[in-house]
Each structure stands twice: as C-alpha cells, then as structure tokens.
Amino acid sequence: MDEEITIIDANTRNEKIKKFINNNKKKFIIGFSILLIATTGYLTFEKIKKRNKIILGNKFNSVIKNFNKDKKKTTINELKTIVNKNDTTYSPLALYFLLDNNLIENNNEVNKLFDKLINETHLEKEIKNLIIYKKALFNADLVNENDLIKILNPIINSDSIWKSHALYLIAEYFYSKNENQKAKEFFNQILSLPNANQDIGLKSQKRISRDLGE
Q1: How far is CA 24 from the centre of its chain?
Q2: What percent of the chain is predicted at pLDDT more than 90?
Q3: The whole model's pTM is what?
C-alpha cells in the first residue's frame, strides 16, 4: 500500500513539473537566450579589449622606437592620442615619455593630459597617486603653495605609499621659499608617519637637524 502511495505521489509530482515547464516554456527560452547573449557579448567584449590593448601596445612601442626629434610634432600627436585612449598601461607610459623628453612646452596642455589620466582613466589606486605626485612635481615651480597642496591633497589625506613623498615635496617647497617654520612642520609630519619611505625619512631628519635648528 505504501509503495502504491509513493508511486502515485511521484507521478503527481512529475506531472506538476511537466505542467510547470510547459506553462513557462517561453519564459525559459527567453531567459536562456538572454543569458547566452550576455555571456557571448561579455566574451566578445573581453576579446576585443585584449586585441585593442595589443594594438595600442604595438603602436606605443613603434612610436618610441622610431622617435626622432626632427619629427617631434608627429611623435607628440601620436603619444597624445595614446594618452587619450585611457589605457591603464600605455596611456601613463605615453605621458611619461612626453615629460621625460620635454616634448610639450605648453604647461596647460601637459596638465590637461595629467587630468585626463587622473580623472578619466581607471587606474589602480597607487598608480593614480603616483601620477598625482608627478603632476605636483611638474607644477612645483609654477604654482603657489595653495595650488601645490591642492594637487597633493588626495595623497596627503590618505595612507598612500606616496604620502611621505608628497609631504617632502611640500616641505622642500617651503624651505626653498625660506619659510622654515612651515617646512619644519611638514618634515615632522613625515617623521611621525608609521610607513614613511625610509630614504625620505632620513632626508627629512637630516634637513631638520642640519638646516632647521634641531
């Protein structure tokens, strides 16, 4: 008797499942189609993204390899194009090459490229902080103290590995302006950091002891 009841229950359950599937067949087909399209689209996007990065890398390497000061304008335009691609690898490298070789004379143009990387390129946190620091270095002799600190604020107000570098740049800025008390305050901030760069820490201690009366 129990076996017959079990068989009946199993048959009833199977019938309910079949009925449910039949009633919702269209929904299942649509759902599966959406999932298939989404998966295919994602894989295609990643493939295109990888291919474009290889193309951009080849372009960058070609520009660097064929760099000629007699064709400086062409090099500048090609590297600016790479910066504007917002690539996490080759866009920063393109800007670094422009800076290292002093290819752009217009400071505003350089700062626009910095901002392009900082604000529009999806960089890793510390890579972004490094670029912010490089922007501050570039502008250190061009801007006043408020603007320099404003550039460096994202690093100063964080626990970045570049924080001691940022503080040291500001401290040296004030020291060069003979504002020794302000310089000392920033050097002391470096010495109080738990994760300050060792070399920066030693330089700060030496500056305080040798040049700032301690």
Answers
A1: 47
A2: 62
A3: 0.77
